[in-house]
Amino acid sequence: MTRFFLRWLINAVGLYAAVAFVPGIRPESSNWLSFVWLALIFGLLNALVRPLLKFLTCPLIILTLGVFTLMINTFLFWLAGIIGTNFHVGFTVDGFWPAFLGGLVVSLVSLVLTTVFKDEIKGK
């Protein structure tokens, strides 16, 4: 259970960083609680939709040597914002490049924080 909450917090920090630093992404609410709920939506999308998208686009992922996964990240970031907006906790994205950079920022923050907290995530 601690692993779940730590991943949830890492997603929330990543989404906050993306919204704060990438121009073209406007949050619907700047309340920290909205980022927590948005991180839950993003985590559910990553758990449920990402494996299906990776399976369906496997030939493209192999053909581009994994670079197409950045497009999947972009799509999931944009979709999390759209779904979150329906619950009044999301964000709006002005186009492809802000969504791409937002997905990249979330991925990089998640990578760094997962590396920092790797012992806690593994349960040691």
Structural commentary:
By secondary structure, this protein is mainly α. The chain has one domain (2-122). Helices cover 76% and strands 5% of the residues. It has 7 helices and 2 strands; from the N terminus they run αβααααβαα. It has helices spanning 2-21, 32-48, 50-56, 58-63, 69-86, 96-116, 118-122, and strands spanning 25-27, 91-93. Strands 1-2 form a two-stranded antiparallel ribbon. Helix 1 packs across helix 6, helix 2 packs across helix 5 and helix 5 (69-86) crosses helix 6 (96-116). The longest helix has 21 residues, at 96-116. The model has no long low-confidence stretch (mean pLDDT 92).
Quick overview of this protein structure:
With 124 residues, the protein is mainly alpha-helical. It is 76% helix and 5% strand.
Radius of gyration: 14 Å
Strand segment tally:
2
Largest sheet: 2 strands, antiparallel
Strand order of the largest sheet: 1-2
- Label the overall shape: globular
Helical percent range?
A: over 70%
Note the total helix count. Answer: 7
Task: Tell me what portion of residues adopts beta-strand conformation.
Answer: under 5%
> How widely separated are the two ends?
13 Å
How many domains comprise the coordinates?
A: 1
Q: What structural class should be given to the helix and strand makeup?
A: mainly alpha
